[in-house]
Amino acid sequence: MKINETNRIGGANPYQKQSEFRANEGKKTKQKDEVQISAAAKEMLSTSKLGSSERAERINELKQSVASGTYHVEAGKIAEKLLPYLKE
Predict the structure, then answer these.
(1) Cα–Cα distances in angstroms (integers) from residue 10 to residues 20, 29, 71, in the given order
(2) In this structure, which of 2, 15, 30, 33 has its CB flanked by the most CB atoms within 10 Å?
């Protein structure tokens, strides 16, 4: 008497599925990432480039005043801006 018949209907070979998966794996094309920049973001980039020379001038002025020790910090304005965050 033969218990494990090899030609039975619905017989499963777990290694067959694994070898088929590996064979199909090489045929698949890999997906590529895409980035899309919205019109609003493009506009923000263009406006930031326009004021970059003015901004660079202001930064240089601030650096010089800090280096020379003439930069004055207004504690009242800083406190007003920090107050809402400290209340939370």
Answers:
(1) 18, 32, 85
(2) 15
Alpha-carbon torsion angle 41, 47, 50, 52, nearest 10? -70
Q: What is the domain partition of the chain in residue ranges?
A: 39-87
Are 65 and 71 in contact, with CB atoms under 8 Å apart?
yes
Q: Is the pTM of this model over 0.90?
A: no
State residue 81 phi and psi, 5-degree precision.
Answer: -75, -30
User: How confident is the model over 31-85, as pLDDT tens digits?
Assistant: 788 999 999 988 888 776 666 788 889 999 999 999 999 999 999 999 999 999 8
Q: Tokens 């997906």 identify what position?
A: 31
**Percent helix / strand / coil, the chain, rounded to 5:** 60, 0, 40
